[in-house]
């Protein structure tokens, strides 16, 4: 009887320790490889107005710093129209959609084959495909605020099979998201006798926000 009591007491003690371990610590990290960070938490969308239009984009991973942004409309195929060749801004924003930081997917597009002008070359399609999940995209707004986005994925589409509605749809309802798009439609690698023209779409979501005159970089 004494041995049976000791065995039952030891089993209850082990079960209690196991229950405590299962309900403390980073439960979401179960099964995650050691040393690998989980996805960044989404920041709540921020209000937009005519005074908060996007003015510049910084992508440190590609060496893009404060490249200018100009407002544009969609073209006939549903792609945001890139800045005209004479524009000093290498990136355009679809002004009919959300501003970067507002709920929904804000659309930015780089000039196709962009190897000309300040800040344009690093946004060429071949470089954009080098972005990886977890890397950052900062968008400076006209009121001095900065919206920081974290890359979620990078997709490559055939130009003739591109469905803009599917590509631009928010990944999660209620989030502030960003789509950075470059169409690679020029050069010998596309068109008759070459590879298909491609559309590169980088999807990112808002993870921090620096208000105007905050005096410091966006929080990590």
Rg to the nearest angstrom? Answer: 23 Å
> How many domains, as an integer?
1
**Mean of the pLDDT scores?**
75
Number of strands: 8
**How many angstroms separate the termini?**
60 Å
* CATH architecture title: Beta Barrel
**Main pleated sheet:** 8 strands, mixed, barrel
Q: In CATH terms, what is the fold-level topology? A: Sortase, Chain: A
How much helicity do the residues have?
Answer: 10-25%
* CATH class category label: Mainly Beta
- The CATH H-level superfamily is Sortase
Spans where pLDDT lies below 50 across 5 or more residues:
16-34, 114-122, 187-194
Oligomer: single chain
Short précis:
By secondary structure, the protein is α+β, with helices and mostly antiparallel strands. The chain contains 3 helices and 8 strands; from the N terminus they run αββββαββαββ. The longest helix has 21 residues, at 2-22.
Quickly list its features.
single chain, 220 residues, alpha+beta, Sortase, Chain: A, 8-stranded mixed β-barrel
Outline the structure in words.
The chain has 220 residues and is an alpha+beta fold. It has one domain: Sortase, Chain: A. Helix content is 14%, strand content 30%. It contains three helices and eight strands, in the order H-E-E-E-E-H-E-E-H-E-E. It has an eight-stranded mixed barrel. The chain is globular, with a radius of gyration of 23 Å. The termini are far apart.
Topology:
Blueprint: H1 2-22, E1 54-59, E2 64-72, E3 91-94, E4 104-110, H2 125-128, E5 136-141, E6 146-158, H3 164-168, E7 176-184, E8 198-210
